[in-house]
Amino acid sequence: MQAAVYARITGVDPASTGGPVRLFAEGLPAIFERLKVLERATSSVVYNLAPRCRFDPQRREREPNLRSRARGLQGHMITVPMQHLSLVAAIHPDTWVAPKVEMGGIVIDERVGLFPGPPTPDGRPTAWLCRDTDVIMAFCQLWWETQQQAVPIREVPGILPLSERQLEVAALLGRGAKDATIARRLGVSPRTVTSDVGRLLDAFGVATRWEGGLVIGRACPPALAG
Questions:
Q1: How many Å from the N-terminal Cα to the C-terminal Cα in the chain?
Q2: pTM of the entire predicted model
Q3: Which end of the chain, N or C, is less surrounded by CB atoms within 10 Å?
Q4: Each residue of 77-99: pLDDT tens digit?
């Protein structure tokens, strides 16, 4: 199915505004910003498959996530086991985890999909809107089949609850900041930061700050750090 969707996308002129498939946004910041619009347009249900769930240090998904939960939208994101699942659980508490996720994409209200496409010539990711009924229904079926093998993220062994401050510490740790620098930035004591870093290392299952920084680096691509 991933190949079929990709073939549909690559056959479309990016400048086209008509037809069942069209460009949604280019570049992660623009995609995040336009996702707010898509969230507001959702009335009942979201099916989200994420083979790789990224950590955004700027927390641009926070507002739409909180609004979706407050509105009681059905459905949830399904992703796979990864070292930074505790970060995912803190930011996306409704996530489920499955052994395998075959493709990435989002479908809202069983009527419109959002799928990744080929990168731009300068390497920026792209997202594409799809209103092809056959594609939408096939994706929803895939979501349901994946959900049958998934469990709520809070039931995954080793998941540790993380606070809002610890998420901020994780963002700064990923940039290589020292405890004193993090403490100054967040207005807390160095001892508090040391404790928070230890909590993060436990959550990642690693022993050193260097290893923790690697985990966050893999979770957060450069395009999300800016």
A1: 33
A2: 0.90
A3: C
A4: 999 999 999 999 999 999 999 99
- Going by C-alpha positions, the residue among 120, 135, 50 that lies closest to residue 91 is 50
Taking the CA atoms of the chain, what radius of gyration do you get in angstroms? 18
Helices 209-219 and 190-204, packing angle to 10 deg: 70
Contact between residue 173 and residue 216 where contact means Cβ atoms under 8 Å apart: yes
Residue numbers of the chain with a pLDDT score lower than 70 = 223-226
Cα-Cα-Cα-Cα dihedral of 1, 6, 84, 91, to 10°?
-90
Question: How does pLDDT run across 172-187, given as a tens digit for each residue?
Answer: 998 889 999 999 999 9
Q: Please tell me the distance from the alpha carbon of residue 58 to that of residue 68, in angstroms, as a whole number.
A: 19
Contacts of 223 (CB under 8 A, 6+ apart): 27, 28, 29, 124, 125
DSSP H helical ranges for the chain: 2-10, 28-41, 62-71, 85-91, 133-147, 164-174, 179-186, 190-204, 209-219, 222-225
For 65-70, which contacts have Cβ atoms below 8 Å and span 24 or more sequence positions? 65/91, 65/92, 67/39, 67/40, 68/39, 68/42, 69/94
